[in-house]
Write a structure and sequence with these properties.
The chain is built from six helices and 15 strands.
């Protein structure tokens, strides 16, 4: 009897140990909310202790969700929307980042992660090299990134658009926290970084319209229509933003996650034209209409901001919406061809893209 009791106790201890380990992982990934919000209270987009869209909240209509009501457990399973074969990538060579950064170039690392080179500076944007959840096996990638976190070049700036797990990664912040780089984040996101050990002098928080300048580079945070939160209870405790990068000659726009709105035209009038713009194109659904851009809205936004070229991002890595992995890019290409006035640049993950120099292809065709 005693032997059976010991066996049962040992068996019961396994799931308890696993749950404890997973809970510990999740807790560290959650970060923390800002401790003092008094400086936000005069902002028109901070009401009742929460940030908000000026257009109103992002709605959720489960009865309109494409493909039926989505399951909260679907991200724990293999995705039926994933590619059937590994996606082609280009692995940057050992010396890819040894020289001086280009006047304008970009490496798309998949999803919203980018290395942007502009006028001798490097920007690492929304760097996520693992999965997109606080526990290891949830919201997994279709495939590995084109380079490992440890192979990424030391950036002058790390830009974070908001604190969702597919844009802000605990392990990557920890990797760069002791290095000579500066984190540029929306209001409230700095609290996560402080929790994870980033020194306060390496963090710059920006509200909509706020600017930071260094070495002839000006970084401006602008509006998006989205939401934030790493847990349900911390929803909208931090801000979400797009970014405008201005040098002496070049201008770049990074849309961040956003629904469509008049903010695009306002950004174009204030900051445009842009040599290159990065627009999120994936994870749209009728059930959350003001959260991400629908394909036709991407084309409208491109013209609104007065961009000279566009790189589609926020696709090709995670199944976040209920449509096949390549549906968005195929629709964007058709709409751009029909429009006739869109300079669409579609590099492979890891490919160095210099606009006007690097040939690009519709590499997903035939997969």
């Amino acid at each position: 009897m005693k032997k059976c009791t010991k066996i049962l106790m040992a068996v019961a201890a396994v799931p308890l140990t696993v749950a404890t380990l997973l809970g510990g992982c999740a807790l560290r990934e959650f970060g923390q909310t800002p401790k003092d919000v008094s400086s936000y209270e005069s902002l028109p987009y901070f009401v009742g202790g929460k940030f908000r869209n000026l257009e109103g909240d992002t709605p959720y209509y489960p009865d309109r969700v494409r493909g039926g009501k989505s399951s909260r457990l679907r991200h724990l399973k293999s995705s039926p929307n994933a590619p059937k074969t590994p996606l082609p990538t280009i692995k940057p060579g050992r010396d890819a980042f040894a020289g001086k950064p280009e006047e304008l170039a970009v490496y798309w690392l998949g999803h919203a992660s980018l290395i942007i080179e502009m006028e001798g500076k490097r920007f690492l944007v929304d760097p996520v090299f693992g999965n997109a959840a606080p526990i290891p096996f949830a919201v997994s990638r279709y495939g590995p990134p084109p380079l490992a976190r440890e192979q990424a070049p030391l950036p002058d700036f790390v830009l974070i658009t908001h604190d969702h797990y597919d844009h802000l990664e605990y392990a990557t912040v920890r990797h760069f926290r002791d290095k000579e780089t500066l984190f540029i984040v929306p209001l409230g996101v700095g609290a996560h970084l402080l929790k994870w050990g980033v020194p306060p002098e390496k963090i710059r928080e920006l509200g909509w319209g706020d600017e930071f300048s260094r070495d002839d580079i000006r970084i401006t945070a602008e509006r998006t229509v989205h939401f934030s939160g790493r847990t349900y209870s911390t929803r909208n405790s931090s801000l979400w933003a797009s970014y405008v990068l201005k040098g002496k000659q070049k201008r770049v726009f990074i849309s961040g996650d956003t629904g469509y709105g008049e903010h695009f035209r306002a950004i174009g009038e204030k900051h445009g034209p842009f040599d290159m713009a990065f627009f999120e194109i994936d994870a749209w659904n009728p059930g959350w209409p003001r959260t991400h851009l629908f394909p036709a809205q991407v084309i409208r936004a491109y013209h609104d901001v007065r961009a000279l070229s566009m790189v589609p991002v926020h696709w090709g890595v995670f199944d976040l919406a209920l449509h096949p992995w390549d549906e968005s890019i195929r629709m964007i290409v058709d709409l751009a061809d029909e429009d006739g006035g869109v300079n669409l640049l579609t590099p492979l993950m890891g490919q160095k893209l210099i606009p006007g120099v690097t040939p690009v292809s519709r590499w997903w065709e035939g997969l």
